[in-house]
Write a structure and sequence with these properties.
The chain is of the alpha/beta class and 465 residues long. It has 15 helices and 16 strands.
Length: 465
């Protein structure tokens, strides 16, 4: 890879010299602005999911018209190298031919039946034959639905009701998990959203990540009430808060010792850092796993799975109800089949990780050469831009809130240089198989130039390590 050479040469330039690398232009936003003004009359905040409103980064949300490979085009026909990838599932890139053709074939036979189809069998077989951490699976329509169903299952299997979750881990908009920590180390949670009754929030204990003592105290205080501990084994919704294997092993050990189920929420990490996700990466067998995003190839899908014994509690075999008209939708299943087949080819994940490391190492090398308080953390093909001098960020409290103002400048600059990131400094980015070496070199140049702008606008003491 040439990224190190790109970063090394850029590191020798003064900030204003970076402008030579770009054709200066003002991106038109008239169509996106008009569409957003109309959307404000239809939807709360003009969007159907809050982060899309660009509140964290300012400006008008971009309305996207199309995507192909690693590129997206907005309504004003501006072209961007995309590192959002629909928040992760587009690991093959936008509009992948195999997925597109599979979807078209499925649609030609109908879009939904509310009845079983062979596509469900085929996708399940592909997953279960290559994932030793699952014996049976149930398809749903979103990651949130998968987590909601997993919690219900855990409570039924354990005969208990309390759930432990961790600060910095997001599990969808499930009522009992939209909570924040209470006033003490081992106290029940407080709702973080209006509309959630106190009685629901009080079924959840929220603990800091990477704190064994907090877990031990909570279990000591409420052992007979705790049904499950749920964690993103690779927390990637509030920064990339990489945990150690030792900590995850500790959670597995203490849950087994106390008859508590361990749930891995792998909606982001599943099928992204490897086919068997974080469970395979760390070699840890949780009791229940939840998935989403990637297994739909860009279509709405989620799934949860476990041993055959635990899954036998799901209706119609057992007494835990869960259903859905669009669960196992044939179009989503067909997209998933094409995607999963591609993921199983050769050294797919090894190539993707190598490409990602070259990209992130180049950026870290550049930031170090300039003594910028900036690091790129990564695992597999997931990365996160952090304005920090810490070697590791394992807890949400280690993220400096003022760093989000730095990201706001970075996001603005990158849009003008045709690079698209998710519009929040707490969100991670994704490399896809469609990102070529040339694309990533171009992105490295744009990011380095934008970092110079960011730190030129900051006080010296904040900007430098």
């Amino acid at each position: 890879m040439k990224f190190f050479l790109v970063a090394e040469e850029l590191g020798k330039l003064q900030p204003d010299q970076h402008k030579l690398h770009f054709f200066t232009k003002i991106m038109k936003r008239t169509q996106s602005q008009a569409l957003y003004q109309k959307a404000l009359t239809y939807f709360p905040g003009g969007v159907n999911s809050p982060v899309r409103a660009f509140r964290s980064v300012g400006g008008t949300p971009l309305f996207i018209e199309k995507g192909d490979g690693c590129y997206i085009w907005d309504a004003d026909d501006n072209k961007y190298i995309d590192f959002c990838g629909s928040w992760g599932p587009l690991i093959l890139g936008h509009n992948a031919k195999s997925i597109r053709e599979s979807v078209i074939r499925a649609v030609e036979n109908g879009t939904s039946f509310g009845a079983p189809t062979r596509h469900e069998n085929e996708l399940a077989e592909l997953i279960l034959q290559h994932n030793p951490f699952l014996e049976k699976i149930r398809f749903v329509s979103s990651g949130t639905e998968a987590v909601m169903s997993a919690l219900r299952l855990a409570r039924a299997v354990s005969g208990k009701s309390v759930i432990i979750k961790f600060e910095g881990c997001y599990h969808g908009h499930v009522d009992s998990l939209l909570v924040k920590a209470g006033s003490g180390l081992s106290t029940f949670g407080i709702s973080s959203s209006a509309g959630i009754p106190e009685a629901v929030a009080s079924e959840t204990i929220v603990l800091p990540l990477n704190d064994r003592r907090a877990v031990e105290i909570a279990i000591s205080d409420y052992k007979d009430d705790i049904a499950a501990i749920i964690i993103e084994p690779i927390p990637a919704n509030n920064g990339l808060l990489l945990q150690t294997k030792e900590y995850l092993d500790f959670l597995r050990k203490i849950t087994k010792e106390n008859n508590i189920l361990l749930i891995f929420d792998e909606v982001i990490s599943g099928f992204r850092i490897g086919f068997t996700g974080a469970a395979g990466y760390y070699g840890i067998q949780p009791d229940i796993l939840t998935y989403g995003k990637i297994i739909g190839g860009g279509m709405p899908v989620g799934a949860y799975g476990a041993s055959a014994e635990i899954m036998s509690r799901i209706s119609p075999d057992g007494d835990v109800y869960q259903g859905g008209t669009l669960s196992g939708n044939p179009v989503a299943m067909s997209a998933g089949i094409a995607q999963v087949r591609a993921l199983l080819q050769g050294e797919f994940y090894e190539r993707l990780e190598k490409k990602t490391l070259a990209f992130t190492d180049a950026l870290n090398s550049f930031a170090k050469s300039k003594n910028y308080r900036f690091k790129v953390f990564s695992i597999g093909s997931i990365f996160w831009f952090a304005f920090t001098d810490l070697e590791h960020v394992r807890d949400a409290n280690q993220i400096e809130s003022e760093s989000m103002s730095f990201f706001k400048i970075l996001h603005r600059e990158l849009l003008e240089k045709s690079v698209y990131l998710g519009p929040s400094g707490y969100e991670v980015g994704f490399i896809s198989a469609a990102h070529s070496e040339k694309d990533l070199e171009q992105a490295v140049t744009a990011i380095c130039s934008s970092l110079d702008t960011v730190f030129a606008e900051l006080p010296e003491g904040i900007a430098k390590i």
